[in-house]
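hey so u asked for the seq, here:
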Amino acid sequence: MKHSEHCPIKEWVVEERPREMLMERGAAAMPTSKLLAIVLGTGRRGVDAEALARRIYNGFGSLRAIDGASVQELCRIEGIGPAKASQIMAALELGKRLIKERSQKTPPRIRCADDALQYVYERYGPYLRDVKKEFFHLVFLNIKNRPIHHLEVSKGSINASIVDVREIVREATLKMASAMILLHNHPSGETEPSEEDIRLTKSIVDSCSLIGVKVLDHIIIGQEVDHYFSFSKAGLI
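ran it, structure tokens below
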């Protein structure tokens, strides 16, 4: 039986049903639309889950675009309500947490700028690449240069975030940090540092040096794995 938007998945031939395909072939072999159909579970009157999944995927164009959407934006797709939008967001969040969990399992020793970049992208990339506001985070390191604490310092507007240098010094002291990594994103996607970024970085480096805490790098996260700015690599730290 050839399926259509008006034919429930349970009436499809077994080989075409998303769940049965996954169990037989494995998740990695599944088309994105069928994986999304499994997340949705059911369609709506007159539209099966896979057709609904294709509407979502084609409507946004990529999983990253879907991940960056709000519940309200997902609900603009015909057939998607708050419940199904929440299912999609939960599934994508689980994927991001899996990546984050891998970076937390055995905290690496960060010896150079490349180590810092890899760590930042594994832990923060999935969360900060596509957000519409600017976030500023700190990664505190112990005497062996292993991460011991993470802190979100500020969440700003679409153009800027407000960072209190005194708070950073205070937190570094409380956490007994020996070093730290600064990182933030640019909502525009551009990674070139602004004059304010350079001024702020120098202020943090100078202030932290007074308490014996070294700033190893300040990383501006771009929208791709190889799209970043490292103050250390640029000779600005």
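Residues 71 and 85 are 6 Å apart (CA to CA). The radius of gyration is 22 Å.
lmk if thats what u needed
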